[in-house]
Amino acid sequence: MDQRLIEAFFTAYPQYTIPPDLLLLIGIFVYIKLPKEKQRHIHFLLPFVILCFTVFYGNLGSYTNYNFEFKRSVNAYFGNTEYPNFNLWLFNVAERQIGTILYLILIKSYLRPFKRKIINWMIYLFILIALVLQFSGIEPIYLNQPIIFAIGANMILIGSALYFTDLITFPSYLASNPLRLVSFWQMTALIFMFTLSYISSVALIYLYEVNPVLGTALQAVGIYLGILTLAILTISIASPFLPNIFDKEPFYESN
């Protein structure tokens, strides 16, 4: 494949930074307005952390495309001299690894104690697999990492499935209206985002070789779904100010 096409494709991630930046400003404003006890609660603190972290690495990705020398030096440090325009090292670590762990922790916060232990082991296993695959050179940090991402995406989907089984079986959830729970919308957004990202990421190079228009379109849709997920997280932070739209989460006693 033409190297210019590859580099154009793999530096396309941070093209849509304005909507996330606006969502971050809204999120910061709303979070500051929350009562102190809610600011410390995981169901408001963690969405805020994910929002801030996601916008941060998105803007850093844009900066790396602006500052080529910085990007080239980081690639050279990791041993990538063939594709100095890649900034995948940033998105592999921030989005596909740290981001996956943060979303697993968010899912865990809505589960019963037994299922939380399952998520804990999933997180430990994911960290171990990611480290082994990277340091062994099987999936270098500066190239596309379909195995690591596929494992992380499947764990997110499994975690979301654990949530939805609680939603239809546990009395606390059965007594509530799912459409009025921010957790329902969070899990739904994660399923759509990671399902599409899973398909496009695993077959990323193949798609771009066979049908670059389709590959680029799937990537763009994935970005839009990511923005939608950030919007839902922002709404989650603001949910205490929207009592006519959202109900309180049916917390377990151990929360």
TrEMBL record:
MF terms in GO: kinase activity
Keyword list, A-Z: Kinase, Membrane, Transferase, Transmembrane, Transmembrane helix
Coiled coil: none
Membrane spanning residue stretches: 12-32, 44-66, 118-135, 147-170, 182-208, 220-242
Protein name: Histidine kinase
Organism lineage string: Bacteria, Pseudomonadati, Bacteroidota, Cytophagia, Cytophagales
